[in-house]
Amino acid sequence: MAQRILILGGGFAGMFAAREVKKRLGQAAEVELINDQNYFVFQPLLPEVAGGSITAPHAVSPLRFLLRDVFVRQARVDSVDFERKIVTVFQGVQRRPTEIAYDHLIVAMGQTVDLSRTPGLTEHALTMKTLEDARRLRAHVIERLEHAEITQLPEVKREALTFCVVGAGFSGVETVGEMKELIDRSLKYYPNIDPSEVRVVVVEFAGRVLGELPEKLGAYAARKLEERGIEVMLNTGVASATGTRLITTTGQEIPTRTIVATIGNAPSRVVRELALEKAHGRIVVERTLQAKGRQDVWSLGDCALIPMKEGAAERGDFAPPTAQFAVREARTVAANIAAALQGRPLKPFQYVSQGALASLGARRGVAQVWGINISGLPAWLLWRAYYLSFLPGFGTRVRVLINWILDALSPRSVVQIRSYTPPAARYVHYRAGDRVFEAGNRADGFYTVISGAVELSYQDEATGGTVTTRIGPGGHFGERLILGQQRRSGTVRALEDSKVLVLDREEFLKIADGFPVVRDYFKAHMKEVYGIDWSPNSGQQG
Amino acid sequence: MAQRILILGGGFAGMFAAREVKKRLGQAAEVELINDQNYFVFQPLLPEVAGGSITAPHAVSPLRFLLRDVFVRQARVDSVDFERKIVTVFQGVQRRPTEIAYDHLIVAMGQTVDLSRTPGLTEHALTMKTLEDARRLRAHVIERLEHAEITQLPEVKREALTFCVVGAGFSGVETVGEMKELIDRSLKYYPNIDPSEVRVVVVEFAGRVLGELPEKLGAYAARKLEERGIEVMLNTGVASATGTRLITTTGQEIPTRTIVATIGNAPSRVVRELALEKAHGRIVVERTLQAKGRQDVWSLGDCALIPMKEGAAERGDFAPPTAQFAVREARTVAANIAAALQGRPLKPFQYVSQGALASLGARRGVAQVWGINISGLPAWLLWRAYYLSFLPGFGTRVRVLINWILDALSPRSVVQIRSYTPPAARYVHYRAGDRVFEAGNRADGFYTVISGAVELSYQDEATGGTVTTRIGPGGHFGERLILGQQRRSGTVRALEDSKVLVLDREEFLKIADGFPVVRDYFKAHMKEVYGIDWSPNSGQQG
Predict the structure, then answer these.
(1) Residue of B93, B140, B402, B541 best to disrupt the A interface, most CBs of A under 10 A
(2) pLDDT tens-digit profile of B381-400?
(3) SS3 at position B538
(4) What angle do CA B417, B423, B429 make, to 5 degrees?
(5) Rounded to two decimals, what is the model's pTM?
(6) Is residue A385 part of a domain?
C-alpha cells in the first residue's frame, strides 16, 4: 500500500518537499500538502508588491498548478498527535475538526512574527511576512500621501510623511528601497507635498545593514540608501511605539504614522505546541532532517534548526533561513524518506551557499555570487534575472516580466485599494500627553482604559467652566457620543503612558443593543450620568 | 475670483463632470472632486474581475491620473449645508470634521445597495457594486471549490457547489456568466469535483432576463446561459436567506453557500439626508440638471432623477442609470454651469441611447447598436472593443488588453487571496431546524439570541442523560468554550427562524477581559452556571 506522506506548509520548504517526494516515490506514495492559503508565495517579491512594481497576483502561484499529483488541502493545522500519527485541521468555513493520518510527516511551517516584546509595536506596526502584508503596506503608504496632500494641520502632515522601517536585513532593506521608490514616483500627483517634507528612515539594532552580506557590500548598500535620501540609523532599536510615534532605544522620538517591522521572527502557535524538542523557537532536527527522537517526523525550512556539522553550536553552524537552502533541504528530505522506506542509510544535509542578492530599489542592488562582490545596476539586473528564473511556472514568469517592463515604461499607479480592515476591538497605546479624543470629533468608537490613565475635560453647560475627570483602568468614554447621538463632546488626553481598548462604533452598537448585560448597564448609565433616555436601536440611525 | 466648483463622487458621472467643467472653465474655476476612494472604478469590468480574466488594479484608474488640474480629495462626505454653502467631510484617519466651501455643488454620488427588505439577505449575500465586492466574490467562489474538494460531508459539498445570483439585469447576467466561466476553467484542478455536481442559478423576479434589451436578445441571452448549464429561474424572487439556504418566493429551498445579490439599488446615507427634494430615492432635478429649487446645486448620474421630457412621469421618461448617459449628463452640467456663470440661458439635457451591450462570458455576448441586434462572438468582441476604447488612460488600456490576451492563452489562476474580513460582530439568520453549533466544534464565537429561539442539548456528565435547554431572545451561549477552554460542548439547533448576534472569539475575549461590566458578569456567570473560576486573560492562551 502507498505510504501517506503528509506535508504541513506550502512555502519554499513545503512546496519543494512535496514536489521532490512525489518525483522520487511516484505511485509508492500518496502525498498530501496542507496549507492555510491555496497559493505559494514567492517571498522575495513581496517588497516589489509593496512598492507596486508588480501586482499581488504576480507574486503568487496556486499550489494546485505547481503540484499536479499531490493532494492539496486548504486548511488550518490545529495539532499533531505523534502517537496516533494524526494531524487535526480545520477546513473551509467549518468549525468541525478533521483528522488526517500519516506515515511520514514533514513539518515546514516557517515562522511568524512576534513583536510583543516592544510595547505598542504589535498594535501599531505593519509587518512584511505575507502577501496581505505587502498589499496593505502599499495601500497604507498611498493613504498617507492622500492625507498629507489635503490636511491643513502641519503636525499631521509631518507624521503622515514620515515612514519608518525597523530592521535592515534583506527584508528591511528591500522594503525601505521599494517604499522610497513608490513615494518618489508618486509625488508628482501630489502637488501639495514638497519632496523635502518626506522622511524615510530605516532603524537597525546592529552596527551595519545586511548583516548576511560581506561588510563591504553592506557599506555600499547603506551609502546607496543614503544617497537616495533614506536615513539609516544604526545601533538603534525600538523602545516603544504609538499610532503617531516611534521611540528609539537611543531616546529619539520620531513622529510617524508608518512603522514597518521586519524583525521579530518567531515560531507559529502550532509549532510552539508540537510535542517535539525545540531550541531558539525552532524544531531540533538531526542532520538527516528527522526531528530529534522521531523516525517518521521531518522538518525543514525556517521552522527547523538544521545543523550543518556535527556538534553544531554557534549560529553559523546551522542552515540559514533562506529560500536557497530550503529548496536544497527539500531534496534531502525526499531522498531520506525514500531511503528510509527502502531500508537504505540516510544522508546528512549538506550545501554550500552560492551567494546572496539584495535589491535596493531604483535599479540598484548588491550581490555576492561565488565569492564575487557585485553592486549597482548589474547586481539589480542579476537579482531580477535570478528570481525570474526561480519563479515557478512559465506563465507566471511571463506575466511578471511583462509587468516589470510595463512598470519601467509607465507611471506607477497610486490606486489605493483597501484590503485591510482593522480589528473591531483593538488596543491603542498613547504616551503621556497624547491627544486621545478631541472635542468636535466624530464618534468612532467606545474606549475602555486598560492601563495608565487619561483625562476627560469638557465645558460645563450651566456654569461655562471647564470640568476635568480622571479616567483610570476599567473606566470608559465615548458612549455618550454614540448612544446619546450628540456631537458636543469633551477632549481626552493621556495623563500617563496608557493602553486603551477601542471598540468600533458599529460593533459597540450591536453589542449594546443585543447583549442584555451591556444593554442594561448603558440604560442605567446613560440616565444616571448624562440624563439621557437611551433605548436599544436608537443609535443605529446615526 | 475663480469660482469654486465642488463635485461629490468620482464615478462616471462625477469624474466626467470634473473633466468637462475644467475643460470649459479653465482658470475661471477652481474644481475640486471629493471621493472616498482615490480611484475611478470602471464598473462594466467588475464581473471580469470577479471572474478573474483581469486583476483588480486593471479595472480602476487613480483619479489623480485622470484629473490633472482638479484638486482631488480622498474623504468621506458627512453632510451639506446649502445655506452656508459648505460641505463637511472626514478625511484621512482623522476623526475631526473638515469644512469645504463651494460656489456651485455637483452631487454625483451614485447609489448603494440596500437588501434589508429581504430577511437574511443583508447578512448572507455578496454584492457587486464595488471593486472590493468583485475581488471578494472571486475569492469566495474559489474558497467554495477548495472546500468542496476536501470535505467528506455530502451536504456541505452540495451547498458549496451551488452558486446563486439574484437579479438578471446587466450586472446579474454578466456576473453569472463570468462566475460560471471561472468555475468551468478551474475544475480541472479539483479532481474530487465532478462537473455535474456544480449548480449555477440565476433568479429573476421579472418574466425575462436583460429587461433593458429587446425581447429577442433577452431570449437569446437566456438560451445561451442555459446551454452553458446555468439555470435561469424567471418570475422568482427571494423570500429569505441564511448562510446555507436561499428561499424563493415560489417556495423553493436552494441549499447554497453563495448568494450574489445584484438587486436593491438605494440612495446612500448622505443623499438620503440631503435637504433636497427626492423621489424614488433620487434627487429631483430640472431638465437643466439643477436640483429642484436650487440655482447652485446640480445632480447627475445614478443618484439623480433626470426627466428626459416635460411632464415626465413614467420610468421611461427619465434617464436610465448607465455610464453612457452619465457621460453625456456631465457635458450638460458643465455647459450649464458655464452658461449660468456667464448669464446665458441654460439648456435641457437631451440624449438618445446609441445602444446596449452585455457579455455572457465564454466569448458570447448580446448587443443592440443603432437599432441593430447582434449576438454571439461578434457581440462579445464588440463589448470588449467598446469598453477598451472607453477605458480612461492609454496605459490602462494596454494593460487590460495584454491581460485579456494572457487570459486567453493561459489557464486562469485559482489563487484565492483573502481581501474580506467579516465584521467581528455580525447577525446570522437560521431557519427552524438548522444546526447552529455542533458538539466538538471549535469555539469560534460568543452567541446572543436576538429573535427566535434555539435549543442547546448536551450530555450530563453525572447521569449520562441528555439535557436540553431552550435559549430565547437575550440568552447566550459559547462562553463556556471560550472562557472555560473546554472542547467538550453541546449541540445547538434553531427551534424557530432565528436571528443571532455572533461576536468573534478574539473580540469577545478582549471585551470580557477589558470592560468591567462584562468581566464581572462572566466571572459570576462562569462560577454560578458551570462552576468554573474564570479570571481575565485566562482565555488568551487558547
Answers:
(1) B93
(2) 998 888 888 777 777 788 78
(3) coil
(4) 110
(5) 0.92
(6) yes
